[in-house]
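Show me any protein, keeping tokens residue-aligned.
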Amino acid sequence: MPHRQRPVVAGPLGEAGRWGTCLEEDRLPDEVAAFEERYSDPARWMRALAWQGQESAADSPFVEQQLAAVRAAASKALGHPVTWDTLAEARGDAPEAGSFGQSLAAVGCALLAIVSVGIRVNEFLDLFR
């Protein structure tokens, strides 16, 4: 089998592992290690790989085996079976980026509501003074 040339991947090694060779048989260990470090648990690996459908649709037995191993590890980590198509519905895994921003927005909305009610109460009390 002729050796094919790897695509040049710019950016951090975590991304190189994601898009470069993470599932390939001739992958580079440092790229895989960077990928696994960046995406700290198997459920996040599944999200990063963004596979859809069944592992059997993979174009090689090695990729099929790798996908099945990642899915099995994510199922074990989450404590219940997951599939590539149902992972988005899974709960209990590591929070994704943006959860702090969502919390901050919720706190901001609550404060705005409290201030608005306070102003209305103050206006109502001014009617009787």
